[in-house]
Design goal:
heterodimer, A: mainly alpha, Cytochrome C Oxidase, Chain A, two-stranded antiparallel ribbon, 19 helices, globular, B: mainly alpha, elongated
Chain lengths: 661, 220
């Protein structure tokens, strides 16, 4: 649920103002979630009927118990119906008739009142950011519930709660939900909300694509969950062939949802890159770009370039299951290794799509709470780019144990080890910033420190695993699982919470309860490590992934891990309680600059005005000049006419809409 | 839009801001089209990889298999040529509108749209009447998998052209010859021109891809 931060402006109907003179449509016909849901249901049945009509007599090459064509077309038409109901195509139809696009109301300082805007397809990047925030929390909690189910089953070395097939189903849902949806956990809420603010822009390049990127995420989420109705998918988050071709119709949901989420990621990244390149305020040189923006920039490139390959792979998988191609069927001229290669060409950059935004958030936080300039700014920026580029050259290390030509292993071992160098640069920038700093241990900083602690363990175990002998030994074990949970949950999710505590006061004008925040941090930090550190030992002792049974001698350690994970879940509930109570009931206002940050977003009122900046600001200095003698203010937020650049519009020009050129 | 009740200084500032974002929007159109080409290259690259991977692997001797029949070279070549001619005709029209010839561009734009749609229609016709089953070989899989994706993207790019043609009806021909009297009109024309140029680049790229995949599927 979205929160109105200016209750006095709230519209009790929650629908926002109706355009003057327009005929009032019934609620179920107005662009919004109700119409979207109606469109999705109608679309699903229409697509399902069409699929049965077109493909009802197809011979099935899989063990599917239903017509996959009907299911996939049902999903496709449901998504189209959902988007049509939201009003995504309205402007497109206008454009096709030659009408110009309507101007964003917020750009002339008019904000839609009420809660309704949070439930609509909107062009305001700040609203999209808040939509992402609530969406991502919901997706994260869902993935977390699946994790609890996994750990509940693993309390005992043999079957006691869920059987082997259901266990795989739950593991697949957990892994895919986390890897697929969480790829936008930082770029979504914080990237969309703060990206334009941090570069001094009133707008983004493609607001419609940005909003579409968000509204595809609930569709992906529901479709992924719908796999449960069809018996789930047995492949885990990687969707490996040939198991995927043999799987029941739940696999269609996996491919479709992952592909759809891929399109969402591409759109978000596309908008981000174009905005950062073209909409930076005068004076926002590349050498002054906040590190968070650098991380968004790099991640966006990874999304735009790597994710299309995933979309292609998901499409090929679906076409194998529907119109009977044989991309991944060895006996018919295809190859299951083709999927593995395509998937990991995306999959490894995906790891950095998850990791780099965490470094971006943390880099912002440490400088503020150390009251020092970010140590080695240029090295950190170069490190981000280095990681991004190298991430395209390491994917074969995921196939060390899967039939890769042995002569190729050393090359990919080397590239994998090389990537630790730019990653180390970014890490050491944090360490350098801590050096001789007077650190303020506020909640965002605590999460930032925990990030560095966790990422060190995750990173070093990653370098260890990149060696062929180590990978061959530990492949498919809990050791690998411990490694990537340390980098992704220990890195990304800790950074996400750091970002929430750091930026939520700016986004909503409300601060979270500090005591509960500290309890949340300490319980999460302790029980995260208590959950995942023993998994390294379990892996070394031979416990395999994705198997619901294990050797009896591993029971004590597994019980320890399960109980720790439940307590980790409790720590998330503490956050949720704090979040809900602070937002809905306590509502402690925070309107100033509580962290005394120099960064551009904190120079604005709280929450930021609808149009972000009254004028195009002129950036004067780095956002990290803490403690620098004679440092200029970070920006002139209201420069006099003529400063921005006479090339665009000569000072003294008459109003653009009516004046003579 | 600038507030008409504002003071001259505020109006100048507003005009300056508007000019700044206008310039940004023009650059964004350029960047966006190039970035889209980058993303599309990776999408097509997935199929290109599949083509060479399966061809070199020749699983079960079924890259093409015994008795394999290629899809009709005549139809394939016609589809490719339609895409090439469409791009060429539009490129010619683009040069004309740069010289102020709006009506010439409109004619070439309509022609390019028609040729593009004909290419898509022929492609659909070919896909529903292939001489092989989609899963009969590696070649058949890549062919049957690739072309639906390609024609959907072609359709999306042609939709862009249709939007440009629709928009052009509301821009006076004189605006392409001499600078319009107001900034608003100047900006509208410049945005149209930027979008047109970006479309042309993208459509030329699609024509290049049509040629490349024609070479792979029919000539190699």
């Amino acid at each position: 649920m979205a929160i109105e931060t200016q209750p006095e402006r709230a519209d009790p109907t929650g629908r926002g103002p109706e355009p003057a003179g327009a005929a009032v449509r019934p609620w179920w016909l107005r662009p919004g979630i109700p119409a979207g849901l109606i469109g999705a249901v109608i679309g699903y049945f229409l697509g399902h009927w069409l699929g049965n009509f077109l493909g009802g007599d197809y011979a099935r090459s899989s063990l599917a118990d239903a017509n996959d064509v009907a299911i996939v077309l049902g999903y496709a038409f449901a998504v189209l119906g959902w988007l049509a109901g939201l009003g995504v195509f309205n402007d497109l139809f206008g454009l096709m008739l030659g009408r110009p696009l309507p101007e964003e109301r917020r750009l002339v300082g008019k904000e839609d009142p009420g809660l309704g805007k949070y439930f609509r397809y909107t062009l305001d990047h700040k609203v999209v950011g808040i939509q992402y925030l609530y969406g991502m929390i919901a997706y994260f909690l869902t993935g977390g519930l699946f994790a609890m189910a996994i750990r509940s089953e693993l309390l005992s070395p043999s079957y006691h709660l869920i059987g082997p097939e259901q266990y795989l189903e739950v593991v697949g849902e957990h892994g895919t939900m986390m890897m697929m949806m969480m790829s936008s956990v930082i770029l979504g809420p914080f990237g969309q909300y703060f990206g334009p603010l941090l570069i001094g822009s009133k707008r983004v390049a493609f607001p419609r694509l940005e909003a579409l990127g968000f509204w595809l995420t609930p569709a992906s989420y529901v479709i992924l969950l719908s796999a449960i109705l069809f018996g789930g998918f047995p492949t885990g988050w990687t969707g490996y062939e040939p198991l995927a071709t043999q799987a029941t119709s739940g696999m269609d949901a996996y491919y479709f949802a992952f592909g759809l989420m891929g399109i969402s990621m591409i759109l978000a990244g596309f908008n981000m890159i174009v905005t950062i390149i073209n909409y930076r305020a005068p004076g926002m040189r590349w050498s002054r770009l906040p590190m968070f923006v650098w991380s968004m920039f790099t991640v966006a490139f990874l999304q735009v370039l790597a994710v299309p390959v995933l979309v292609g792979a998901c499409y090929m998988g679906l076409s194998d299951r529907t119109f009977q191609t044989a991309f991944f069927t060895n006996q018919l001229g295809g190859s299951s290794y083709l999927y593995e290669n395509l998937f990991w060409f995306f999959g490894h950059p995906e790891v950095y799509i998850l990791a780099l935004p965490g470094f971006g958030v943390i880099s912002e936080v440490v400088s503020v709470f150390c009251r020092k300039p970010l140590f080695g700014y240029k090295i950190a920026a170069a490190g981000m780019l280095g990681v991004g580029i190298l991430s395209f050259f390491v994917w074969q290390h995921h196939l060390f144990d899967s039939g890769i030509n042995p002569d190729m292993r050393p090359l990919f071992m080397l590239t994998t080890e090389l990537i630790s160098i730019p990653t180390g640069f970014i890490y050491l920038v944090g360490m350098g910033t801590f050096w001789k700093a007077r650190i303020r241990f506020s909640i965002p900083m605590l999460f930032a420190l925990a990030f560095y602690f966790n990422f060190l363990i995750g990173g070093i175990s990653g370098v260890f695993l990149s060696d062929v002998p180590a990978d061959t030994t530990e492949h498919g074990s809990f050791f690998v699982m411990a490694h990537f949970h340390y980098t992704i949950m220990g890195g990304l999710i800790f950074a996400f919470f750091s970002g929430i505590y750091y930026w939520l006061p700016k986004m909503t004008g409300i601060k979270l309860n500090e005591t509960l925040g500290k309890i949340h941090f300490w319980t999460m930090f302790i029980f995260f490590n208590s959950t995942f550190l023993p998994l390294f030992a379990l892996g070394v002792m031979g416990m395999p992934r994705r198997v619901f049974e294990y050797a009896r001698n591993l029971e004590t350690l597994n019980d320890w891990v399960s109980i720790s994970s439940f307590l980790l879940g409790v720590s998330i509930l503490i956050f949720l309680f704090n979040f809900v109570m602070s937002m809905l009931f306590w509502r402690t206002p925070e309107v100033g600059n509580p962290w005394r940050s120099r960064s551009l977003e904190w120079q604005l009122s709280t929450p930021p005005p609808p149009e972000n900046f009254k004028r195009v600001p002129v950036i004067l200095s780095s956002p990290y000049d803490y403690g620098v003698k004679d440092a200029l203010p970070v920006a002139d937020l209201n420069p006099p006419p003529g400063v921005i650049g006479s090339a665009y519009a000569p000072a003294g020009a008459v109003p653009a809409s009516t004046g003579e050129a | 839009m600038t507030d008409l009740t504002s003071t001259p200084s505020e109006a100048a500032a507003a005009a300056e801001d508007e000019g700044f974002y206008h310039e940004s929007a023009l650059n964004a159109t350029w960047t966006g089209s190039r970035l889209a080409i980058g993303g599309l290259t990776f999408l097509f690259g997935a199929f290109l990889f599949a083509y060479f991977y399966l061809r070199s692997l020749n699983s079960s001797g079924l890259w093409q298999g015994p008795g394999f029949v290629r899809p009709s070279l005549w139809i394939g070549t016609t589809i490719m040529l339609l895409a090439e001619v469409s791009a060429g005709v539009h490129y010619f029209g683009l040069q004309r509108i740069k010289a102020g010839g709006k009506s010439t561009w409109q004619i070439t734009g309509l022609l390019a749209l028609g040729l593009g749609l004909a290419a898509v229609a022929f492609q659909i016709y070919q896909l529903v009447d292939l001489p092989f089953a989609p899963g009969s070989s590696g070649y058949a899989s890549v062919f049957t998998g690739f072309y639906p994706v390609f024609l959907v993207i072609q359709l999306a790019v042609l939709l862009w052209l249709e939007i440009l043609l629709a928009r052009s009806r509301f821009i006076p021909a004189l605006s392409f010859v001499e600078q319009p009297p107001t900034y608003t009109e100047t900006h509208a024309v410049q945005r149209f021109q930027a979008s047109l140029s970006a479309f042309s680049t993208t459509w030329n790229y699609m024509a290049l891809m049509a040629l490349l995949f024609w070479f792979l599927f029919y000539a190699l």
